[in-house]
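Tutorial, part two.
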Amino acid sequence: MPDKIEEAPIIPLLQKISDLSPDKIAVIARTLGQASVFNEVVREQISGMEVGERYREITQAFNSIRDDSKRMVDQISDGTLDIFERATNAWMKIARGDVAQRFDKIRSLYLDVSKATRGQIEREHTILEAYRDFRGALKQAEVSALEVLKVAEAKFEATKQSLKAASDAVSGFAGTEPAERARLELARDEELRMMQNEEKRYQIAKDLADNLTIGYNTTEVVMARLLQTTSAKERVYAQAVSFFSTNETV
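Running the prediction step on this input gives:
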């Protein structure tokens, strides 16, 4: 976790629309302000979870025992053991160790992997629970953003109507006094500026709502994927513990 949390780039944009609904903007700002930190923590936790290679080592060790045992059975199938076969067996012991030694190595590796896997599963469960909490906060931010968008849209539409009325007043002016027409044009220009400002604010609110919706849907995919990998690890871990615990005499 970083010692100092820097202001998120989205905060200055939120400040431009904060008057639309201060409470809702505060909720959104608080959620997004912590999002990058939370995501970094989750990525760091998950990136350090690697036990697949050591499980592969266990599988390869079992395969070597099976293959060598089968070859030894084939060697004595004719009731004799020639010099070449004896030399092959001797080289096998030198290169890979005898079967008993390899079982001891597998057991040692299994205990190490089992401990690491159990720790990883516990960490992933912690991450999943934290992610569920964050997902709820993100959904609340999405709801707030959609409500802010509704307010922004209403204000934008109101300024468009005001601009239309001011423009119609200029177009329909039938007087001969230049100053009066200039006042109408000034009012129209002011309405145009207000409409342009509200359009910018509306676009900020719309982008915010759209991206929060996308962000929430993305977390749904991430959650589903993480749940799958955690469940798979739990299954492999349970199978390994069951196998080694019930075959200790081997």
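The chain is about 85% helix and 0% strand. In part three we will examine how such features are distributed along the chain.
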